[in-house]
């Protein structure tokens, strides 16, 4: 019987759980890395979210493993190269364009971060909790008439662009991989030109060798003085040391991040410095990668991935059971 381990089962969809139980024997347990290393060898399927780094050691610990399931589009928490070499399928939301059009959470959180940053909402709310009531201290800036620069015009970037237009912003886009753009969107052929023009830059790109530290010292120097940066893609897209310097010098007016490099354990000193800066400065907001974490989106994606796993295992069984025909012409 197929044995499935859901290593991040907290608040997991009951419907997705029902589907998994129809596939095989389901085990649900929040495990430490050491515990997972010891027990993974007994399972055919591992289900994770973003809290576990599925690296070489973890994958190699289970020669029985057939699939790793993650209800995410990003895969930087999984060593896909090692998985491929070991014959382990990585099932994710990457490339599931039609389904993903029904998921709105990350785009909405992007806009929430921008509004919180430009209106200083966290600091204002905290002041009221301290018994203060000072309107002048929290005078904000309007989005109307400002230029929104979107880097990466896929599903999320397009939705964020539509939000910008609803707020009366001018939407400008840089995406060298996309051909068709709606007429109301200004397409830029270089990142430099977009950075130089925009009041707000919002990042919506995958993390790969082309986008690693896409935003670094040179890019921040090009941006308008006082411009804002929003990142809900992946932490590695931004050079965190350069970001910190841009904030400290006033080159950037502010930044709001839902992702940081090395999450969720913060092993990198640069990330810790950013968190320390955010404690004392209102122009940096960091949330713990909650862009996709809504009840609606997580239930939809978990059900989708459970069905995707069911199809994968069914296809795998059919391939194994296919009769092998001899070449009779050689007899």
Helix content: 25-40%
Q: Quick one: how many beta strands?
A: 12
Strand content: 15-25%
Principal-axis shape equals globular
CATH class of the largest domain: Alpha Beta
Overview of this protein structure:
The protein has two domains: 130 residues, Rossmann fold (3-Layer(aba) Sandwich), CATH 3.40.50.720; 183 residues, 3-Layer(aba) Sandwich (Rossmann fold), CATH 3.40.50.720. It is an alpha/beta fold. The strands form two sheets. A seven-stranded parallel β-sheet has the order 8-7-6-9-10-11-12, sandwiched between helices. A five-stranded parallel β-sheet has the order 2-1-3-4-5. The protein is 39% helix and 15% strand. Helix 8 links the parallel strand 6 and strand 7. It contains 13 helices and twelve strands. The C terminus is likely disordered.
């Amino acid at each position: 019987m197929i044995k499935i381990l859901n290593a991040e089962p907290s608040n997991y969809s009951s419907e997705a759980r029902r589907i998994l139980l129809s596939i095989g024997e389901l085990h649900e347990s929040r495990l430490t890395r050491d515990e997972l290393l010891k027990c993974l060898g007994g399972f055919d399927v591992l289900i994770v979210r973003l809290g576990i780094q599925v690296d070489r050691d973890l994958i190699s610990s289970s020669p029985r493993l057939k699939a790793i399931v993650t209800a995410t589009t990003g895969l930087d928490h999984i060593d896909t190269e090692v998985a491929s070499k070991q014959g382990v399928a990585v099932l994710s939301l990457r490339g599931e364009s039609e389904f993903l059009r029904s998921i709105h959470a990350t785009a909405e959180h992007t806009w929430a971060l921008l509004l919180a940053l430009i209106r200083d909402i966290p600091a204002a709310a905290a002041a009221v909790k301290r018994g203060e009531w000072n309107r002048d201290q929290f005078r904000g800036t309007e989005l109307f008439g400002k230029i929104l620069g979107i880097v990466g015009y896929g599903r999320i970037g397009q939705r964020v662009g539509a939000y910008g237009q609803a707020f009366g912003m001018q939407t400008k886009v840089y995406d060298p991989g996309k051909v068709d753009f709606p007429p109301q969107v200004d397409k830029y052929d270089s990142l430099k030109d977009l950075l130089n023009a925009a009041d707000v830059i919002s990042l919506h790109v995958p993390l790969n060798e082309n986008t690693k530290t896409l935003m670094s010292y040179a890019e921040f120097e090009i941006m308008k003085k006082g411009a804002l940066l929003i990142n809900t893609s992946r932490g590695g897209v931004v050079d965190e040391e350069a970001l910190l310097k841009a904030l400290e010098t006033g080159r950037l007016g502010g930044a709001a991040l839902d992702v940081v490099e090395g999450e969720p354990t913060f092993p990198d000193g640069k990330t810790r410095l950013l968190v320390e800066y955010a404690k004392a400065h209102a122009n940096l907001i960091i949330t713990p990668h909650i862009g996709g974490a809504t009840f609606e989106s997580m239930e939809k994606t978990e059900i989708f991935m459970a069905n995707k796993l069911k199809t994968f295992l069914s296809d795998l069984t059919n391939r194994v059971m296919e009769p092998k025909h001899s070449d009779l012409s050689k007899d």
